[in-house]
Amino acid sequence: MPSSPFLHSALALAALAVIAPATGAQSTASATSTIAAVTLYPGSATVERVLQVPAGSTQAVFACLPAQLDARSLQVRSASNVRIGEVNVQTVERRIATGCADALDSRIRSAEDDLARAQAEVQALELAQTWLNTQAGAPAAKDGTANAQIGAKADALRRSALNTLTQLHQAQRTLEERQRALERVQAEQGSVQAAEVAVVRVTLATPSDADVRLTYQVRGPSWSPSYRARLDSSSAKVTLERLALVAQTTGEDWRGVALTLSTGQPLTTTQGPLPRPWTLDVPPPEPPRPQAEAAMAAMSADAMPAPAAPMLKTMRSAAAPLPSFEPVTTQGAYATQFALPQRVTVPSGGERVTLALGAQSLPVTLLARTAPALEPHAWLVAQLPTLTGDWPAGPIALERDNATVGQGRFDPQASDFERLGLSFGRDDRIAVRSEPVQELTSATGFMSGRSERSIERRFTVENRHPRAITVQVLDAAPVTQNAAIRVQSAYTPQPADTAWGGQPGLVLWQQELAAQASSAFTAKHTISHDKDVTVRERH
Predict the structure, then answer these.
(1) Per the database record, which ranges form the DUF4139 domain (predicted)?
(2) 113 and 39 assigned to the same domain
(3) Which of 167, 210, 220, 323 could form a disulfide with 392 if both were Cys (CB 3.0 to 4.6 A apart)?
(4) How confident is the model over 194-204, as pLDDT tens digits?
(5) Are residues 237 and 338 in the same domain?
């Protein structure tokens, strides 16, 4: 095998196997291998090809494979009575490789031939028209028969010109149609074909007819999770559909393959970082340095970057294998695989294919959430029950009562997912009003040594739905971070939480509003401190 771990990057469209007899004359039989199965990982794929070989074959040649395949990952399997020898990998130019043409290449060549014929027809008619123009401009004969011939010649030229121009117009129309047909076929090809392809030669000893299976890994193909949530507000149910977006540019068209999505990452490193020794010592005393040198050393220390440990932690989290969906799940010790029940076609060239992986109907809790101090609107939120299984983070399309409301981010693994839920757009039947903030600053204490500021906010929420609905009202309260500043807060009614989501100062009122009912919410905050204290306020 080549010493390089990977072959040069390229694209491929087919594989050809050439079988040589074991003995006697070197007659050669050829067959085309087919892709039987593909296991797709985030960022790579394992492709399995199958080739039928007759008895007596001594060598199988798989040609026109992706040049970016990992030569170290090659595996060859066959029946127990077939002996497998060495496996050689070679990179060759595509233009001299055998068996790289497929049905699409034939269609492109046919479209190019049709275009060439249409161009030739147009050029021939243009040449005929040029000759007619030359004949029309030729001087007439000067003998006695000139007058009789002029009329006949003019009539013949007129008929010929009319016929030629009509045919030329139709030929130009045909030429345009042939050009568009070629462009459509070329668009199906996706990406530009690679200049190089890989050839794998397998030495065999086959006493009987058998199938030879070649498995290899290739970088580039990938899949990512996606979701679609449809809310039926009348029944308070969400239909959550799992999707997978698949794309690949290997040059091989995966047509009718058995596709399995996996959370593993076989081409990544197999070992994590190890801790370094932690030693303690007392450094020897440093010799005194000049003042200018010490100042420069201090500046260099200030400019040094922060320790890399948090960054490494973030990188490890980002590189963690994505969990995936199923319809048929195989839960392994270190990875989960999801086999699709149907045969799948994923063309090369980067075309994204969306695969449906099942749906669930879930009962949800509907509520209207508003932050009146920020905007006078309420938003319809569906809180989902605890989900079981693997649900990786991904984009989600949201629909409410058969109408699209937008897109968001779906991450059931997030710590605040159950609390925040899924938002399905504005609820215009919840009227929110925020009165002007009342603020008063005064001096208090003995000899007016303290400053006191009073801030009062009042909100009103009205339910215009024909049914009752749960309302959440959120507001921010001042939180002191210094003992020199004192804060007192009073609420009407008493909020359900003053540290919603574990965030001190995030106030939550939650109550059920009957149909056509309204409720008022008041928050009054008193901030006091010594007059000589400067307060830095952030909100």
Answers:
(1) 212-530
(2) no
(3) 323
(4) 678 888 989 99
(5) yes
